[in-house]
Amino acid sequence: MNITQEDIRSRIEINSISGNEIEVNMGPHHPSTHGVIRFILHLDGEIVVRATPDVGYLHRSIEKIAEKLPYSAFMPYTDRVDYVAPVNCNVGYALAVETMGNLEVPERATWLRMLGMELTRIASHLLGVGALTVDLGAYTPFVHALREREYIFDLMEILTGTRMNNNYVRLGGVCQNVNDDFFEKLSKYLDHFVLFLDEFERLIGLNKIFIERLKGIGVVKAEEAIHFSLSGPNLRGSGVQIDLRKTDNYCFYDQLAFDVVVGKGKFGVVGDSYDRYDVRIEEMKQSEKLLRQILSKIKEGEIQAKIPKKLILPEGELYHRTEAPRGELGFHIISDGKSLTPYRVKIRTGSFTAMTTLSDKLKGMMVADVIAYFASLDVVAPEVDR
Amino acid sequence: MKYSIDICEKLVQLVSPVSAEIIQRESKMPIVKISAQEVRKVIQIAVSNPGLKFNFLNNISGTHLTEISEEGDIKSRGFALLYVLSRSDDFSSVVIGVDLPDLNPSVDSIDDIFGSANWFEREIYDLLGVVFNNSCDLRRIMLPDDWVGHPLRKDFQEKSSYNGIPTTREDELAAVRVDNL
Amino acid sequence: MNQLAYMIILAVIYLGVIVVTAGVLTVVERRIAGRMQSRIGPNRVGPQGAVQWIADALKALQKEDIIPDQVHPFLFKIAPYLVFMGVFLTLVPIPFGAYAFMEDLDVGIYYVLATASFVVIGFMIGGWASNNKWSLLGGMRSAAQMISYEIPTALAIVVIILMAGSLNLNKIVQAQGALPHEWYIFRNPFAFIAFFIFFISALAEGNRVPFDIPEAESELVSGYNTEYSGIRFLLFFLAEWANLVVIGALVTVLFFGGGNLGFEYLVQLPLPGRDPMKIEILGFLWFCFKTSIFVFIIIWLRWTLPRVRIDQLMDICWKYMVPIGFFIVMGTVLWVYFVPDNSQVDFITRIVMTAISTWILIYFVYRVYRNLKITKAKIHLNPFL
Amino acid sequence: MITYFKNIWDTAATVFEGMAITLSYMFQKPITVQYPDRLKEPVPHTLPAGYRGRLALDAELCTACALCQKACPIDVIDMKGMRTEGKKGLTLIYFNIYHGKCMYCNLCVEACPAEDEESHQTALYFKKDFEGVGLKSSDLIEQFIPQEQAKALFKEATDFAEKRAKEKKQAESAPKPDSSLKPEGGA
């Protein structure tokens, strides 16, 4: 049988391997670190003896800027917290401020927000899955995934006005309305999308080499996932059935029927890299079902509630969390009840905690597995450094 | 949201010898306030006690507490930490707040209880300057190692240049403005 | 003396032809890759991008040829030439119609195997000499990969030698007939497996996906050729695409009866001091057609499959290819001994093997059509955009 | 032993299927468009209604209320409105937008109150120009009131301001004689 990662690690523990290691810098300009993240790897041949991630290259101090801007002016910055899923971050921030200042949001605005969120979730998962395939060497599925993402960007252009960084949500509603031919275009696209997903599965998902490269790599068992507080697809990939859309049911998610997808260990162990990939594919199917239900439930109506120009939130603090494509996106807002700007905004992101597992999990892996495991976590640099 | 006042009450009873009082009762997020020394003990109880079993660490966030002194400048009066824990089955959460003194604030680290706590603590140490005792690996996470000062403090004065690199951009719009022509 | 002059002229012509084909192949690959990824590929420089490769070559030529310091000067410079020489030499004995242009070597196949190992030395030297940890890793990987894949290649070639009875590539081609059932691939089931073994290990020799681990972009940045730039990088680049032609040519000659049309349309070129150079025009075209099919298959594989990990690569070689290789050599020995050539049983097996292969081909075309139908895509056949 | 042959069969079958899919793409029309010259229709026609292309100002409509300047989080808009002779309300002296810094967040367009009646387009609006390119970095600063006109307006406005300041000073320095007159006038 081939050597498993465990007995390589045991040999590293009794440091029979270490001694003639070479120290290699993987990053910050490395083709497969999804942004600017650096790993200092100590390699013994192909096997990683010690890995220390080094982040902070994309630190824009969003939280310090938040203390200087009024609540509504901070919205474009939440686009940039996770630039692959901008609408989800917008809604996360808006919901946090609205629950704190108990501003109510008209019904159609919430439906439009959920529409934007689920569309961006599909686009973000497409990029996550596509980047995983290109890191394993298959270039064509990556281009097909990006092609589908372009179709979604065309829809987002109609819905919000821009392709990315759309700054679509306002406190108390959304910034622009949308007419009916957008809904026809959306449902026509969803019919095409289901066919594409099935073809993507047949092209790469069931490919033997792809499965061999991901099966049993970077296994994160359920308690480990909770111990390292992974969230989102990474947590569900390890078999833990937690989806904030179900547990916290913000917006109108309780009116929609969808199931929480959990890693089943289809080709290897529950919690390995293939499971995380599989959970993302299934989640795209769920989002597609959600979008169809939203299309059927959305009605005409107001899209922006009246909120005071000079919004001052009551004194106190609140930690509000929503389900972003990369896990739990939490906004912890503290307001001193007097000034127009928040006293402190702390943003908790899914990729930040996914990075905590790396220094422990990378030990004993081969270099090619480091890339596969890191891509399966779908970590994006802006979310880690904010 | 999944905060409820009776979870906080239950936590306060189970931690009874330790003095814990609940603030912000009627708001959407009641906080269990404890003193800095008992952080480790309270969290240990919250995680291990069969009645609670909050074994998922959502977030640790730090804040710099200040007040406006008489002559109007900012005077810092301490730091506040906020631990958000939730149960891994129904994801209901409890929030534990800690107030720290102003001079060299320090609290016990909980990175052996939670794997992800280390990175949260490193970020708070890096950006706020709160020291976590006997932490497994406390060093700056975002900023370069030779950076002086902690940016997220309210009284942080940004220097004009860092190793010769100017930190401010000259305002292009001013050059074209009519007033100064 | 004039024989040497002729040799040099012939070599220069050969070099020109190979460099041009390798160049054109880069454009063809990018167009095919484009269409497979539902985009267009280069079609602006020259009619349908035909002159793109000259533009690339000129760009690479005028790029500064950086030699980083603390680099072993001599080895760093020599590595690309070794690699290109390794690829270029293998083309000497290959019969580009029914007869070899350059030299009709009696030890044709062993000569090809021998020169293929120059490429290994070139990669290792290139990787080690460029004083960069990533390229060192790339060099080590290429050494392990190419040396271990020469054994399955040799085993597959032994099967052909058993059937043909001679090492000379000309004789191998003439021993096969023009019609599909006379080709060696359908001669017996073991040769059919030998084709797959040979094709997969030739892919590994040529560093093509799924075995392009030495210059795996996503892991080792760019493997052994990280530090190279300008003309030196161009040589590595050309060697890889010339290798495509070599693999295609070898497969058609050994398994698909390259250039053998059953009749001969011979042109004799008198050469002083040696027997005249025989050029078979129609056979040459038939050979080029078959080689281009295999070159297309190699390109097509590259844009479909992910990369294999280094230890899986070794598993495939030592646990799957070599045992099966020994099995098919044993099988062919028994087959050739018990089943004399063009006897009744032999004829039936050939027909059955051809029938099975055509059925597989038809089923494949059906799968392609089915996929088009499922995704409700609009058919668009005009390749020129 | 079974898994040995099963692996071989799986690899062969999945590679077979994958190649069938990629070959099927060879027979489909590529979706990329040859951008600058071989287009079916010019790009601005394909852009939707609310497309945020490039900021532009309709100078006549603008009432110089500086709401857009306050709304912009990163001070991209630099404008000034002052009182001038014989015109109620503020006149626009200069209006510069630094396109290099603009992040197309649409907060300024929403803050702008001046709206054209029939076209429902605000004074400050997004054009359908999606390229947003400039040759020089100074191109990126667009001045909607030309420099000379802005200077003239500025001088005129400052003179008017001094004139009014002088009048007001006279009004305060000699208030008594005027107030005696005013009661008769006021009755």
Plain-language structure description:
The complex is a heterotetramer of chains A (386), B (181), C (385) and D (187). With 386 residues, chain A is α+β, with helices and mostly antiparallel strands. Chain A has helices spanning 5-13, 62-66, 75-81, 86-100, 107-135, 139-160, 180-205, 208-214, 222-227, 233-237, 244-247, 273-297, 350-356, 358-361, 367-377, 381-385, and strands at residues 22-26, 38-44, 47-54, 169-170, 173-174, 316-324, 327-335, 344-348. Chain A has one domain (62-377): Cytochrome-c3 Hydrogenase, chain B (Orthogonal Bundle), CATH 1.10.645. Chain A contains 16 helices and eight strands. In chain A, the strands form three sheets. A three-stranded antiparallel sheet of chain A has the order 1-2-3. The model of chain A has no long low-confidence stretch (mean pLDDT 89). The model of chain B has no long low-confidence stretch (mean pLDDT 87). Chain D has 187 residues and is an alpha+beta fold. Chain D has helices spanning 2-26, 43-46, 67-71, 107-111, 147-173, 175-186, and strands at 54-57, 77-83, 90-98, 124-127, 141-143. In chain D, the strands form two sheets. Chain D has a three-stranded antiparallel sheet, covered by helices on one side. Chain D has a two-stranded antiparallel sheet with strand order 1-4. The longest helix of chain D has 27 residues, at 147-173. Classes of the chains: A alpha+beta (386), B alpha/beta (181), C mainly alpha (385), D alpha+beta (187). Chains in contact: A-B, A-C, A-D, B-D, C-D. Chains A and B meet through helix 9, strand 6, strand 7, strand 8 and helix 13 of A and strand 3 and helix 3 of B.
